[in-house]
Amino acid sequence: MLGYMFESLVEAGGFDWSIRTAGILVIEGSAMSSRTRDALLALSDMGEHHYSGHRSHQLSTDDVIWADAILTSEASHVDFVRSNFPEAGSKTVQIHQFVREAPLDTPFEEQLATVASREPRSMFDIEDPAGGDQATYNACAMKLWELAQVFSTIVSDEER
Length: 160
Fold this sequence. Notes:
Layout: H1 2-13, H2 34-41, H3 61-66, E1 70-72, H4 75-84, E2 92-94, H5 95-101, H6 108-116, H7 134-159
Parallel strand pairs: 1-2
Helix pairs in contact: 1-7, 2-7, 5-7
């Protein structure tokens, strides 16, 4: 979900960001679930996307090397990335923790380093809605959309 949200924000805000999505425990090449698609379609301001073309991708060393920042939704995801890709530790954070704890009025690299130096905490988790009903997916999508918008505001304010 978050990848499509950032793509929408890039298109609307003219950010110079490249977005890649990857999971930590996915079946490579799987299609997006209908509940995920419907949750994204229910959000306003998401723009036009071809959700049917999405295929899941397992996080790889190439992804980690490519990324300037790795944003996750749960503390356990940060732990997984840091454990399996130690070189990514200084650039892997929970999006909710970043939004709450990144120092304002500093360059993005410093914001990222500050939050990445802290332990991820479950209080910042946006739990995976897998297995839930449509309302659970919609609530997850809404929370992630709010966080993505705040993140883009924090980072765009720093870019000015």
